[in-house]
């Protein structure tokens, strides 16, 4: 289980363009961070860098005592609109596969589907699900296999008001049991979270509010 | 292990549905094999001479058909991102994907290959060797083809690019397999050609996943 996330002086580049530099974040077990910034600021790229998918231009991402490879292999969930779910497969096939792939059991996947009120929908093809149902299906993985760091990319956007509240409860529960969350958001998160604004390199030199 | 099995069964079911599935590959194969006599003239003597080779080249072309989506879909919808977040190394993931490709498309093609060759006029005694060569060649086509599919990730018209990258790498198995079939049908020793085909397939299985994983990492970052 990871109990710390340390981002130190991180700079990321995408498509040859510097997104941001000198980004710092320290997170302990039970804490959440909300990444805010305009479209294209690099919120998703930062999440992918934490997940080890993007090479850092400068700076480091560390997980305390735990080796980064081990942390990424066993202690991290990544969820966003790029959910990897195949339209032609049934909801259950997708959930069961991803639960097993991240280390959960079929029973845990069933239980997670029940919590997210998906049990009735499991035999439908993913293409038949609404955007909100599809998002809930991908969020069910977070419960099906317990991993301590959740990297969430706009987790709330397709959810209705009721499900935003219920997913907020899921996140609070995760934090209360010693988990950590880094979420890229435009709307405020329904849980207490440390805001982290991502600024472009030229903006970082200006006074806030200018 | 359970993870690897879960991925293999996912890959086989996905490959079964990919680009119309293996049945389309088989139909394409039958189409190419039917076109050939129309182009060369239907004299049995001439057809019988080229039948094994023609069946073999058509097989290599059919193996190209469903390659382009091998990594592309998982890359586009984010599944490849999520797949990296597990203890299974990306090299093994790539190997399993190619194995799934082999099970789902090379196996049906291997069943169709002897039929096509015999229909073109090859001796029926050639059928078992064609089947085994097609299975072995299919392994080489899947693992070498996977390199092309991974390298063309993110490119426009990746399928065409995959074919262009992969064709030169298909040359050795086509030569070795075609040579073995030719030697067998003229009563010469054929084992050397088959052994070279098997060696090429083994090398592809051993080295291909390393290249594919490197290409995937490059495409993801």
Highlighted features:
heterodimer, A: 210 residues, alpha/beta, five-stranded parallel sheet, 6 helices, 8 strands, globular, B: 221 residues, mainly alpha, 9 helices, 83% helix
Care to describe what's here?
The complex is a heterodimer of chains A (210) and B (221). Chain A is α/β, with parallel strands linked by helices and 210 residues long. Chain A has six helices and eight strands, in the order βββαβαβαααβαββ. In chain A, α6 links the parallel β6 and β7. In chain A, α3 packs across α4 (106-115) and α4 crosses α5 (131-144). The relative contact order of chain A is 0.21. The mean pLDDT of chain A is 89. At the A-B interface, α2, β5 and α3 of A face α1 and α5 of B.
Secondary-structure element series of chain A: EEEHEHEHHHEHEE
Structural class of the secondary structure composition of chain B? mainly alpha
Shape descriptor of chain B reads elongated
* Number of helical elements of chain A: 6
Widest sheet: strand ordering of chain A: 5-6-7-3-8
How far apart lie the N and C ends of chain A? 42 Å
Tally of extended strands of chain B?
Answer: 0
Average predicted local confidence, pLDDT of chain B: 88
Tell how many strands the DSSP assignment of chain A holds: 8
């Amino acid at each position: 289980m990871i109990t710390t996330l340390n981002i130190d002086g991180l700079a990321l580049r995408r498509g040859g363009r510097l997104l941001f530099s000198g980004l710092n974040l320290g997170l302990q077990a039970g804490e959440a961070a909300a990444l805010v910034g305009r479209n294209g600021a690099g919120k998703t790229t930062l999440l992918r860098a934490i997940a080890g998918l993007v090479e850092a231009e400068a700076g480091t991402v560390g997980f305390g005592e735990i080796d980064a490879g081990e942390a990424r292999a066993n202690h991290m969930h990544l969820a966003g609109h790029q959910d990897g779910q195949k339209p032609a497969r049934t909801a259950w096939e997708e959930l069961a596969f991803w639960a097993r792939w991240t280390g959960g059991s079929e029973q845990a996947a069933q239980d997670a589907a029940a919590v997210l009120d998906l049990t009735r929908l499991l035999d439908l093809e993913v293409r038949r699900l609404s955007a909100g149902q599809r998002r809930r299906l991908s969020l069910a993985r977070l419960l099906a296999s317990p991993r301590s760091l959740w990297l969430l990319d706009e987790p709330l956007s397709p959810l209705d008001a009721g499900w935003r509240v219920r997913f907020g409860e899921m996140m609070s529960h995760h934090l209360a049991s010693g988990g950590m969350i880094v979420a890229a958001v435009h709307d405020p998160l329904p849980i207490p979270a440390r805001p982290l604004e991502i600024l472009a390199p030229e903006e970082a030199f200006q006074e806030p509010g200018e | 292990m359970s993870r690897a099995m879960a991925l293999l069964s996912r890959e086989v079911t996905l490959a079964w549905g990919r680009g119309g599935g293996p049945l389309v590959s088989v139909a394409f194969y039958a189409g190419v094999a039917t076109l050939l006599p129309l182009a060369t003239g239907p004299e049995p003597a001439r057809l019988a001479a080229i039948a094994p080779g023609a069946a073999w080249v058509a097989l290599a072309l059919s193996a190209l058909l469903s390659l382009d989506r091998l990594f592309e879909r998982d890359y586009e919808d984010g599944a490849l991102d999520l797949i990296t977040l597990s203890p299974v190394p990306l090299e093994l993931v790539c190997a399993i994907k190619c194995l799934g490709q082999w099970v789902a498309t090379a196996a049906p093609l291997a069943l169709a290959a002897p039929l096509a060759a015999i229909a073109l006029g090859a001796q029926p005694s050639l059928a078992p060797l064609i089947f085994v060569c097609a299975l072995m060649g299919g392994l080489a086509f899947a693992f070498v083809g996977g390199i092309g599919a991974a390298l063309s990730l993110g490119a426009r018209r990746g399928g065409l690019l995959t074919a262009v990258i992969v064709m030169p790498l298909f040359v050795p198995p086509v030569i070795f397999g075609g040579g073995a079939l030719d030697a067998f049908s003229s009563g010469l020793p054929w084992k050397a050609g088959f052994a070279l085909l098997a060696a090429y397939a083994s090398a592809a299985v051993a080295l291909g996943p390393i290249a594919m994983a490197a290409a995937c990492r490059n495409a993801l970052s």
